[in-house]
Amino acid sequence: MITNKVIAFSLFCLAIAPDFGPSFGLLFALPVNGPLAGRRPPHAALSAMRKQWSEAERDKILSRSGDYWKMDRLRGKVSFGSSSFIRTALDGADKDSIQRWLADDRSIAMSIWDPNLVSNPLPKVYRLKLMTLMFVTIQLAPSVDVKMYTDDKTGVFKLESVAFEPGIQLLPGIKMSAESLGIVIDVVGELYPSRDGKGVDGKIGFVTSGDLPPPMRMLPEQAFKSSMSTINSTIMKFAQESFQKGAREKFREFKRKESISAT
To answer: What is the value of pTM for the model shown?
Structure first.
């Protein structure tokens, strides 16, 4: 996500010390104008489309535990993110009721994210709008389109990013293009009934990557690791807490509707 909800689901950042001149950041920071700033029309296409996910690609991210980071200083490539387990108890749950709930992609989408920041541009695709972010001279207002569906073979609820828009705005005087930062946002996850049938278990992971301008490549490795570790822990903590709250609320709502329908 990251924002008023999740920050999941997203996503990423890297801050530059003022000593390095025009600074650069790869996603995530403090809000500038609040969560609804710079909202894109709900059905407008995002600029960066992703190819179809393979199981190997999903597993590569979800098989990790904790923080991930990789940097090629010579080429100026950097990627980092985090993967974490999700475990949430649900009142009055059993495996059958959870499985029925997981078949409702809209209810799950509204559990994961603040409903005010979610649109539904395509069937089973939900656009998650993040708050406006600021890194010294770079402002971002990211959006991520996430496909959410239940795997017919396994019954596992899956989510995977299919498009994204970093929403970069460079402040006057910065001599680099937004495109030159090469930002890519990948998000995957899965949910399924817990073994005891009293809640949902799952995992969520994100990887963000980009191109470092030459001045940033001179920063010591520890500076990158420290910044990434702080960002990753903040994102995952927020994501877990947001889903736990949202899932309980939406599952109770789901059970109430089932109860009414049965009478």
So the answer is: 0.75
